[in-house]
Sequence to fold (349 residues):
Amino acid sequence: MDEHRPVRVLIIDDSVVIRQLLKDIFARDGEIEVVGTASDPIEGYDKIVQLKPDVLTLDVEMPRMDGITFLQKLMRSHPMPVVMISTLTREGSEVTLKALELGAVDFIAKPTQSVFTGMAVLSHEITSKVKAAARARVRPPAAHVTPVPFARSAVTRGTEASRLIAIGASTGGPEAIRQVLQGLPAEVPPIVIVQHMPPVFTRSFAERLDKLCTVRVKEAEDGDTLQPGHAYVAPGDYHLQVTTNGSQFRARVVQTEPVNRHRPSVDALFDSVLQASGPATVAVLLTGMGADGARGLKKLRDVGAHTIAQDEETCVVFGMPREAIQLGGAEFVLPLPQIAHKVVELLTA
Fold:
């Protein structure tokens, strides 16, 4: 799209209140133009064809056709950037993760408190995500990835226990993380992950990954001993840090101040990993808007850790990796399908 004109948005939501709140938020931004609204997907599809918006905001639960069914049809016939509007519930999180798998760029969780107050608090997040979605690459769902065989003969005894894999991502991250984890065998060192997500969603995300990947995946809990072959996802609204207890790594889950406007923050994770495993780390920064993780990746590279940034072509939003590359923090810049293989290669070198 032309970056000198406003982002053209179509709102599809059965709630008159939500439609009006979104219109008001976008109107105050100045860089977003609401070209139309619709109360259900049937009406919405006609307006997509007629108005040709840059971005669609789509409610998950609607009459006549639910958001997931509509998204599947839309991605087959008219692929475009979609930001889902979800409820902050267990059921809402599972449906939203399915939407991201089907090709939605991002999501916004409706507040549990007063919708008027909550949406006002979320206004910066809402406008940022819509503008990022307008620049995003819309991709078809990726196939299941076969794990890279782990050359155990090339691994010295104790390698899995003394090394650490750290991964950070934001917009587009759920599917990127899935592809990386699915490409890793069960014998890898402990994996710690920050994906920018609210509470409830991170647990559903971890459980979904656990069903799809060879490595075991769980939402991190304070005091967890980090085990080889296991991945630990930072819980929403908490930072995940790594500490050492003798020869063991432990998870520390804390609710200190946001870093780079985020909690969990990738930089908060990478800074703790810098102290815990330093040069024995393989750190990966995946797709996402903003700069969270870029500074931390550079620090890790400076002490001799292996660092990987996802390349522009395969990122949904080339923000965080680009910042890391510009800082000189990326030892390798790779397309997403090659990252798991490179991680295994670095661990067995």
